[in-house]
Amino acid sequence: MRKYYVQFDWGQKRLGFATAAQAVQMPAAPVHVPLSKRELSFEETVEAVNKGMQKWEARLGKDDPVVIDDYMNAQYYGEIGVGTPAQKEMVIFDTGSSNLWVPNTRPFLTSHNIYDHSKSSSYKKNGTTFAIQYGSGPVSGVFSADTVTIGDLQLKDYTFAEVDKTSGLGLGYRLGKFDGILGLGWDSISVGGVPTPMNALVKSGQLPEPVFAFYLGNNQPGELIFGGVDPKHYTGDFSFVPLSSESYWEIKLDGVKLGSDSVSSTKSAIVDSGTSLLAGPKSEIAAIATKLGAKSILGKDGTWWTAVPSCLISPSPWAVRTLP
After folding, report:
1. Main-chain dihedrals φ then ψ at residue 173, nearest 5 degrees
2. Active site located where (predicted)?
């Protein structure tokens, strides 16, 4: 997504792609959320790839900006506030899920921000169990309601999950800089059927347009904008593609080429801001890996390492991580 400025149009149920500009400037109207990036060691990158693949295995979140940091070259995260007064949480803004969760317990020997509802005057108890299954194990807790602040936007009495078990995220979470996940997907995949963050923002009337857009910085902070797009982040016009499903941000895939060769017959794809993995059916990804000369990571079937970029994203539990 770093090559493109991607507009997620909730109102018209479509995705827009425009060539990303290099300069990062803020417009006067929308709400901006900064995004950041952290470089990884080889071992950490391997861990990021495997955790991202487990996410795929488990499947078969007023114009306002937020600065977004890059987690493990795979996930971009930014700051929100939960409670009154607001308690800082760094979250992954994930178009591949639809719930907001933050931790209320800090794993041993980690420095994660935690949410303490006893310190919030706007907290409301819910107590319903929240549970999501990852490839390596569960993440669970309970639903609660409180004020959630995203940039200059506020969602009062918003239902989210406070989590006390994060074993399903493994070492990637213990080493990572993010605390929780804010899903930007659709209502149909929301755990517990609770309103999604974007649904709540649209219904609150705070957004000039029912749109959000990602600018992912390359060796610099990126930005997530709610309520519009920032013309300083792209050049030319948007090319729009209608959604084929209101679950993930899923679109029709016309084809995938490696050079002049067609390398996929897959007909649909998901645009997922929660991972930088390129995923597809096992047989197709294996063929692409062979063409690229990619090497298996630690012998793990379906996961390869290569120094040559590819372009496949598809909703299947097999992944290839490529480096620019």
Report:
1. -75, -40
2. 94, 272
For the ranges 40-49, 141-150, 313-322, the lowest mean pLDDT is seen at 313-322
Whether 94 sits among the annotated catalytic residues: the reply is: yes
Cα–Cα distance, 115 to 32 (Å, whole number): 23
Both tokens assigned to 146:
């409180």
Assign 298 a pLDDT band (cuts: 50, 70, 90): low
Q: The tokens of 85 are what?
A: 């007064």
For 99, the token pair is 């719930």
Please choose, from the candidates 153, 93, 144, the residue with its C-alpha nearest in 3D space to the C-alpha of residue 119: 144
Calpha distance 276→47 (Å, rounded): 13
Q: Would you call 97 exposed, middle or buried from its count of C-beta atoms within 10 A (0-12, 13-18, 19+)?
A: buried
Which of 93, 168, 101, 103 lies closest to 136 in space, CA to CA? 168
Exactly one of 9, 69, 230, 272 is catalytic; which is it? 272
Report residue 293's pLDDT band, with 50, 70 and 90 as the boundaries: confident
Judge whether 146 counts as a catalytic residue.
no
Q: Is 273 left (phi over 0), alpha (psi -120 to 50) or beta?
A: alpha
Looking at 69, 94, 179, 230, which residue is catalytic?
94
- Amino acid in the structure at residue 129: T
Query: What are 136's strand-pairing partners?
Result: none
Are 101 and 163 in contact by the 8 Å Cβ rule? The answer is yes
Q: Hey, CA dihedral for 236, 223, 280, 296, is it positive or negative?
A: positive
Distances in Å between the Cα of 64 and the Cα atoms of 17, 21, 69, 81, 208 are 19, 19, 16, 14, 10
d(CA 24, CA 33): 12
